[in-house]
Amino acid sequence: MADAAQARRGAGRLLSPVPRFDAVVLDLDGTLFDHRGASRAAVDDWVRASGLAPAPHLHAAWHDAEDRHHRAWRDGLVSHEEHRRRRLREFLPLLGRPVGDDAALDLEFHEEYLARYRLHWSGFDDVEDALSAVAAAGLRLALLTNGVPEQQHAKLAALGLAGRVGPVLTAGELGLAKPRAEVFHAACAAVGADPARTLHVGDDHPVDVVGARAAGLRAVHLDRHGEGPVGEPERIASLRELAALLR
């Protein structure tokens, strides 16, 4: 497993020529903000508060429920509140906790998970390098995230990034989410850049890379954990590598 991850990281270089960019669009969760770490720590705290010991199968169950139901919200199939309730309906029985009505689930999510999640918010230590690289290259900057505005702006504030990443576009405000081409185009329009001269950087390969390219942008995969698809040439393992791509 380690060898496979290392092999992927070893492929983390742009193999094709980089055109002159006018703008960079950054993702938030998993790119600037350590969502995985905060979520995992919050689940561990929640599990302990329920009288159980943290375990890999509980991490996996929460991550799987989050991924599936967040995708349903992203695709416009359920509301943001309902996607959270669906996650709890699957997870609470694993903790031996009752599954209440919608109001009870909303309260449970906020008090038992979200409050703990907020306690563990942190950014990655390569974020400042990325912002410096964009500034040094004289490029316009925007942030595009598949989240709701209140929470995503709160994350930026907690990380000291409020007002430092250019226009902030959220799926909750746009009414559409990545990988829809319209949201990538909205980010380009927000900074007055042609999609063909805009680089999108994100950690979710199908959403941030495949989606951006389908919308006409250039995209690089931020593959922090060496889990990206084999054969993806435009890959970086850290935002510190962004400077070399923009020079």
TrEMBL record:
A GO molecular function held by the record: hydrolase activity
Signal sequence, start to end: none
Top-level taxonomic group: Bacteria
Transmembrane segments: none
Cofactor entry: Mg(2+)
Keyword Cytoplasm attributed: no
EC numbers on record: 3.1.3.-
Record key words, sorted: Hydrolase, Magnesium
Pfam families in UniProt: Hydrolase
Protein name: HAD family hydrolase
Source organism: Kineococcus mangrovi
